[in-house]
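fyi for ur records
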Amino acid sequence: MIDRTEKPTRKPRADAARNRARLIDAAKAVFAERGGAASLEEVARTAGVGIGTLYRHFPTRDALIEAVYRNESDQLMRAAAELAASRPPVEALRAWMRLFVSYMAVKHGMMELLDSLADGASTLYAASGAETQRAIDGLVANAVAAGDIAIDVEPLDLLRALAGLLHFKGSRDDEEAAAHALIDIMIAGLEARRRR
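which gave:
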């Protein structure tokens, strides 16, 4: 017998999915610029939707903050798989580390907001930290297996060095340029170790 009380699950309408994506992109930009002073009204206005639409997708400020953070993490993890499939291993590693710099810059810009989450950000950090570890481990393992690099430290230490660099104050462009230069230095050092 069929249970007619159970409603079938539907995919969100295309316009609802677009609005959700626009809200996340707008929130990322507004949060990066205004930090804790950012208002949800400003996010809705930037996304070009009404505040009611924002609340339909994200019933609380915390829900929106978490969605932005998870979206950034998800994009970074998808990029690791895409780069590993489409580029030579050492170039996939280099490109992903550059994306990691952008991810860390967004995270750093949202730190005040993440710290304000009612449930804390520790569960968000734990999940994204484990995913990041898997991504860097896989990319480094691919480059080692291809004979492109040799490494005698934990792959995560490469990202820790980059994260530390991002704590120095300067313009975002300066930080990004310095981080990209550091990535090139690290990759060159790993390639030199292989040639020894």
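The chain is about 75% helix and 0% strand. thats all i got for now
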